[in-house]
Protein: TMPPE metallophosphoesterase
Amino acid sequence: MISFKQLPLEVKAAVAAGVVFFSMMLSRSYLAEQLELRTRRWLLRLQMALFANALMLIGSLHVWRSTVTTFSRSSAANSFCFMPWKIAVFMFLALAHSSFFTLLFLVAEEPYFFSLAAYTCLGAYIILIFFLFTLGSVEQAYKFLAGRGAKAGTGNKNSRTAMKPVLAVMLTVVLTVVGLLNASRPPTVNSVEVPVHKLPSTMNNLKVVLLSDIHLGPTVGKTKLAMIVRMVKALKPDITVIVGDLTDSEADIIRPAVEPLGELNSPLGTYFVTGNHEYYTSDVSNWFELLKSFNVRPLHNENVKIVSPKSSDDWFCLAGVDDIEADVLRYSGHGMDLKKALRDCSSEHAIVLLAHQPIAAKWALQERPDINLILSGHTHGGQMFPLNAGAYFLNPFFVGLYKVGQNTFVYVSPGTMYFGIPMRLGSRAEITEIILRSP
Structure:
């Protein structure tokens, strides 16, 4: 029988990931209500960091073997540049692995340089793993199709083996630079007209500005939020809505970074619903109080009547639901409750719902098909290659405007900033200006 010590490192890492994942499920299911809130918060984050690192270790071993071990068996090992290259690869992997721990130790009003470097390496790591896997698969497919009859010389074989990691690294460097430059640009302003069934004529052309997925935390701080607020104020919206994932940290730690929200002065109000990352902070109640101090109203499975400035008899129902992750985490007093959120919202008036995740939008429409418009986020438009494909297939609505049925629309924001990795590839940060049209 093979002992644990004899197992390959990749298998050991996979076992470790499985153990951490099991502990996460155990914590969520049985310990959630027994642990103190602060203890639960730290435990959840530590478990997520350890789980991610255990999985990454499998990829890191492959990266090391592809970019270092491969060359150590060739004449390149005697080169002056080989030792600095080994150190560079090791530092790159160490920074990528450390990124998940910055949420525990390095969150402030403005991002630390270390956090930006670590998350940049994490983004490059994801791209590099993709290209190493893709090029390796292409190589194996070529060998299979070519057959084993024609055997190439040792020199040619070594040359082809070296070309794979070199090409992967070059592509990774180029795409990392492009992604960093793309994410550093201000969000684009996208104006969308949406016909809203039963919207009063006095509210025609009402302007709603949609923000989502700002992710104040290790790599997004006060400066970027202040820029977003300036751009929103320039649009002069009637209503501003933030559909979740405003933050990745506790309210007390990052309070100074949130202050620009107090400058939002939309005449019909600024509203907020939770995203999954608010529940990862385990600090939702404090966030609600902080947002209220900046005149941002949380919609905690509740609704408000948005009354026309021209006629008090004309109004529509603006509702918001808690993110579905609250149910998974068994977060006390929270969870998606559509019936409560839409209480007194009849189909005689237009209904606009704020729900962070597109899957929640789908569930809401299955229960209440009379909802006229749902505003969501969460997907980030995939944020960066090659994660875009996963986000596309895992969500019923990916990004942009969707028509569902005859009188219902769903709009999914690609996000106003980014989560952690300060890169965007195949997507663009967006502030959405939604113009409501009466029929």
The chain has a mean pLDDT of 87. The radius of gyration is 25 Å.
